[in-house]
Amino acid sequence: MTQKIGVKYQGFPSDEELAKIPGVPDAERIKKGPVAFIECAQEIPCNPCEEACPYGAIQVGKPITNLPKLDPKKCVGCGNCIAACPGLAIFVVNGARDKAEISFPYEYYPLPKRGDIVDCVDRSGKVVTTGKVLRVVRAPNYDHTAVITVKVDQEYIDIVRSIKRLGGPEHE
Amino acid sequence: MKTTEIAIIGAGPAGLSCAVEAAKAGAKVTLLDENLKPGGQLFKQIHKFFGSREHQAGTRGFRIGEQLLKETEELGVEVLLNAAVYGIYENKTLAYVKDGKDHALRAERIVIAAGASENALAFPGCTLPGVMGAGAAQTMINVHRVLPGKKILMVGSGNVGLIVSYQLMQAGAEVKALIEAAPQIGGYGVHAAKIRRAGVPIYVSTTIKEALGTEAVEGVVIHSLDEKWQPIPGTERTLDVDTICLAVGLSPLTELAWMAGCEFTFIPPLGGHVPIHDENMETTLPGIYVAGDITGVEEASSAMEEGRLAGVASAESLGYYDEDTAKRLKDEIWQRLNSLRTGPFGEGRFKAKIKQLQARRQLA
Amino acid sequence: MRIKHHPILNDETRECNATIIVDGKKVPAIEGEPIAAALLAAGIRKFRETPKYHKPRGIFCAIGRCTDCVMIVDGIPNVRTCVTPVRNGMVIKTQKGLGEWGEKS
What we know:
Strand content of chain C: 25-35%
Order of helices and strands of chain C: EEHEEEEEE
Number of helices of chain C: 1
Structural class of chain C: mainly beta
Number of domains of chain B: 2
Number of helices of chain B: 9
Distance between the termini of chain B: 34 Å
CATH topology of the largest domain in chain B: FAD/NAD(P)-binding domain
Helix content of chain C: under 10%
CATH class of chain C: Alpha Beta
Strand order of the largest sheet of chain C: 2-1-7-5-6
Helix content of chain B: 25-40%
Largest sheet of chain C: 5 strands, mixed
Shape of chain B: globular
CATH class of the largest domain in chain B: Alpha Beta
Largest interface: A-B, 48 and 48 residues
Radius of gyration of chain B: 21 Å
CATH superfamily of the largest domain in chain B: FAD/NAD(P)-binding domain
Order of helices and strands of chain B: EHEHEEEEEEHEHEHEEEEEEHEEEHHH
Strand content of chain B: 25-35%
Largest sheet of chain B: 7 strands, mixed
Structural class of chain B: alpha/beta
CATH architecture of chain C: Roll
Number of domains of chain C: 1
Oligomer: heterotrimer
CATH topology of chain C: Ubiquitin-like (UB roll)
């Protein structure tokens, strides 16, 4: 049976679905500097991201099932929203530098350390490239959600969304 | 005989929330739970809850549980643990066994918040050690800090299957695959996305053919289903697993409500036979209320709101709130409850709960 | 296997301060934890055998509802190991069938 794409079939939004949601910034904005990338594609009653943003760049409003809308002008890419999202669906991407920088939520042990070279994965968990860990942030208000930032080649800026789990058993 | 004003059976999210509201109103509350520790399934939920600020969104489930527990202590709620209520008799008398001894408790009002239990799935090898409920695995890892296995197959793509898969990996296990018999994923896309990023394949239209092993699970054979949900010959695959977790739905634990004589209605989206209740969470028996998963399987957030509703309503009926105050409190709760039952995932539950309320009106 | 370090629940602070005897062998345990947890931590998954066909059974629901996990504890059969707390020195036996009262060693 052919694998259907789309969040209902493969568990992550397809590129088509991502292009339609209001939380995703366009390529031009990504090249200007860090910006949130909210991969929230389904209407679930949920709005902590709206409250977490200190710049008012995320709008959910009422009803709270609305998909979060990102204002790319207000967003400075501070990343406060990353750990606030209960679904771990928010990232911050920065395409302004020589290499792409991608920040993502991570709740496994062991954590990588700054400077580590790690396997980076796409939305399906497939290792697509290696990257360097720039930052691992664990703030008290993140409540045990670490935010990791990796540096990868620019071509992966829309692709890499996490790292392969460290120390755990090998995946097939 | 021991007496109380409001007896609440079950100290899970619904029961705890109910106890807090009823005690705040000034009623004498006794909360009973058959377990050694209160909290029901709430303390296993180590992920952050959804909703809005008033639903405590972004807070991990067990922290919400700790908060509720603290409030019950501060309000002087009597909590009886290791107390299994086995019957509800005339004059709202409960019978319970505690520490091996029989007891009776007469209450003015009873709230049954007994929750729901996991469904089983039948397939060759389903009784082997290593086949367990997804909730069972969750209890073991998050409450007792013990891994029940290392290589897991998760069956069921509802939120329980998706979340427990994630938590099993946080505990150090490897989830080899998650399979779902339906042609699409049942739970939230964001939960599925987390486990996909961790490398867990999700196979829809797939089910178990048989579990392999003699003394315990040593492997599993899965196969694909066609549009008529029939297995397709030749699609068998064998996976190297030592544990099979079943996340195939929950059913309300309704024995006490049946026994007491409450009227029921059959609503499949809520889990099957559910007790009929009104907007006050009162059943067809005056003075007996229900709250939480026993009224229909939803989630912890709605269980807490229903518990609060039953707490306010039962306290009101005893004169602890005047009509206007009670109405204001209940309206606030209903608003929060309704906002949880929205969107493509919540709408179905909203409609199902409307049916349940309608069943009550039809009987009036 | 016990979970020592957990990203959300933090590090394990309890120590194995009790010993239970399982089918004659000493197994470390934590006083107060469910018997089933100590057994699973020690890698023991088979808790009993069914009466007729002697099939192996272990935990299923883990919250005291299904009774698949029962064993003979201090001579008493049909004890739900998933909700019964460990006491130092407890004697646990794999229950064969319906078990027998008074089987202690």
